[in-house]
């Protein structure tokens, strides 16, 4: 990408983060997948583990320009979330070289698109159990030539998986190594670089943690684009009201409430994104705290994206079902982000559990008297009491606490997002809508604890959204994504006319060129 340097990737500069919120990434999910693998996982890992090596420096130059393709081979068919138990082995040989081997079907690397394409060579960072004299010494990263762009390297095989449903096709593969001998230089990092095998593994996976925040950032433009498309359609689509007058459907509460809610998320989560980055790149903070903030961001972003896109697609009626109007396509593309670079549920379980047993804490609230803050504090107090009584490895913890870990993580994230939006001057109406939406999910709790009744909540809904509606049109334009949605026919009368004119037209004079429709 023009303007993005190796230093930007290594240092996590503002350019690096800006790349991941560029609306162009939503145009092609496959290209975005390959881009983030290449730059964040491969180049990012090589800059850390291959520092000072001239051969790595030259390789990085080719990776930056895509002269060489790069893949990141960590998870296996039988080991995803438990990657620390992966089975691929790298056995040290007497001459100092290594032999990489896949001992079983479940040990094959799962997902990385390793098959030859474009006639360009492809390298892979492959994680394997280091075996020395029959003893496993922990997981290490190795750099291999996977293929030359035409054929797989000797001893390496890749089976092409079928495409993910509803997304742009990526050549996801199942990759196996059959006693592949590689030189000593294939090992990334020093042989005895770490005093702890576990710590060495975690440090080598630093860029996966970066990816949890970076990939989640792509959800922000997806929400912004979908909000713009649905908003513009709702402003131009008209129906007869009870008096027979044609009115835009945006005037109905069932239409403008979801559009305004998505708008609120677009603005508030942009502020939360900046807040999360600030904490994540702060080297003075505990490593676990930085990743905890990233987990909160991912949880809140996924919730907002899934709900907003599905609801907005529905509110566009039949038009929302078509891929050419983009919203449904964005929804399908974004689903994978919940799994990539750390399943959000597992990240939440780890975060909430460690907070409950007081291993560390995340940045605390600024507004201690806010509803979102009160909810966060009370539910953590409740589940901490259960944890103290039964222990975090008890059946009671598994049945009573684990199912609520995602909710706890979202509670922290909602409070952080709210405070970030207030601090950055997001319009008050949009901040109120964001908080209102978060409260709605746990309305029974707020009513039970006497903070508001269901009737009061309903009245506040009417007040908040009616006051925000007059500004909806201007806020939509403030998203500044119009150039990226021109291909969606429903955004304007002009784009719809162009779209219809390009469709195959069947008339009574088309009999001679009838098509098979089965």
Layout of helices and strands, plus pairs?
Layout: H1 6-11, H2 14-19, H3 29-49, H4 54-64, E1 69-73, E2 89-92, E3 98-101, E4 109-111, E5 122-132, E6 135-147, E7 156-160, E8 173-177, E9 180-182, H5 197-204, H6 206-217, H7 219-236, E10 238-240, E11 246-248, H8 253-280, H9 287-315, H10 327-334, H11 344-356, H12 371-390, H13 395-401, H14 405-423, H15 428-441, H16 443-448, H17 454-468, H18 472-478, H19 493-501
Helix pairs in contact: 3-4, 3-6, 6-9, 7-8, 7-9, 7-10, 7-18, 8-9, 8-14, 8-15, 9-10, 9-11, 9-14, 11-14, 12-13, 12-14, 14-15, 15-17
InterPro entries: ACOX_C_alpha1 (IPR055060), Acyl-CoA_Oxase/DH_mid-dom_sf (IPR046373), Acyl-CoA_oxidase (IPR012258), AcylCo_DH-like_C (IPR036250), AcylCoA_DH/oxidase_NM_dom_sf (IPR009100)
Organism: Gloeophyllum trabeum (strain ATCC 11539 / FP-39264 / Madison 617)
GO molecular function: acyl-CoA oxidase activity; FAD binding; fatty acid binding
